[in-house]
Amino acid sequence: MPPIDSPAIIVARYLRSNGYEEVSRAFLDETHGLTSGQTLDAFLKESGLPPDAGSVSPGDLTLEQVLREKMMYDLTLNLEKASVDDGLKEWKDKPAQWKSTEISLTKPSNLLQVAVESIDLPGTPSAHPFILASSADRRLYVISTDFILPEQSTRFEVVRSFTGLQDSPILSFLVVARRYLVCTGMSGMTVLYDVKRGQILSTRQDHTKYVVKVVSWTRPDGQVWIATAGWDKKVNVYLCHLTSEGISMDEPFASIQLTSDPESLLFFEHPDDKDLYLLLSRRDSTFIYYYGLPESLVTLLDCRPATVPLTARQNLAPLANAWTAFTPSAMAICPHDSTLLAIATSSTPHMKLLIVRLLFPRAETPGVDPPPTTPSASTSMDANATPAVLQAREALAVQDRETAAIYVHSSTMAPQTPYSTPAVAWRPDGSGVWVNSEDGVVRGIEASSGRVVKTLEAHVPGSKVRCLWAGALGEGEKKREYIISGGFDHRLIASEPSVSST
């Protein structure tokens, strides 16, 4: 028996619901031809369906619904924005085949987060890149990316497995100065761990709910900024100092209270004045929020918690007529253009991908007056304009700027639900991004067009792919592009282009 919504069943349902099973004797005598009943019977026989196939019940998918959804999909494609004239790269290995390798874990469980970090592990001569992966059983795996230790038998081998770092599953982590591990968990705890000495340096409980993201920024003078985002509608900012004796994590330098839960965080340095900003997105808002962290804030150590000013915001849906259209759930900076951002959104039933240019607050040089302007007709018109008109013109100018900053707005066709956790990662050459899904497929999206050009199907079909990392591993001629993905099928997969296709 075909599936309940197979094409044959839908056609049979259409024939039966539109009277093609009713035989009219008068019509048969008159035409001496094929009756409506014979049409349905012939179709059922040719399709191998039982005589009662195609019965219509409330809620069943009909042919009319399929056609309407196809029309809506075509309309959506026409409204998508995919610009090929903005300097974005094209996907370079369209015909390439990819090889996937499952990494063997000690005790397989749902994977929550994966990344590649350089760590100075005990027993190794120097810092090396390792795969870090956290799972739902509170483990944090350290997996080699090359034959580093003498006892290794395979390339991707678990060399460490931490089980006591957190009292709950680890949702996010990072490594500072190739030695200090910062990890956050579902209980709201943030832990600072010295990998070299094998001891916990600090344990903080500054959040009351899930801490879903931790990011850091290290300045040349040894200042380390760390920010954590929790589902208690709060972002905590820590200021740490690297010394020869180590690093400490004291009370939050600042705490940002939000009106909804934060989803993604990024530290970024202004390309002009080199001021540091914290970029964040939050649930039920289509904006990216810019919080300034200038050097002047560091002098306020006696006024903790300090106030981090909101200096700007950028609307990712400037033309939307609804108050909220999606949530920017995951953000990633392009490796070759630090002002270009890829954003995976929470839209359903399929993930929408945005590639946008960051619109930072304009830097102003102290003591320098703006260049003089020549009077024009528009200037004289503005002199007679009311404050409401001037405000409307300014809002329109901001909307035009935000609209022009969106280079790509396309559907990834990656299934999502309201409970999904979108993830996005750039290719090393910046020619595209990878996104996760709820159907076990990792999709590659071309940056210049927004088209799906690659699908990796190493996970169990229909399973949730929870986390992604993309980048290059190896050195010299052995340097290769890798995609590392973890899912709720208990699989950690490393995918690379096959040698024969490169």
Automatic annotation (TrEMBL):
PROSITE patterns documented for this protein: LISH (PS50896)
Source superkingdom: Eukaryota
Q: What is this protein called?
A: LisH domain-containing protein
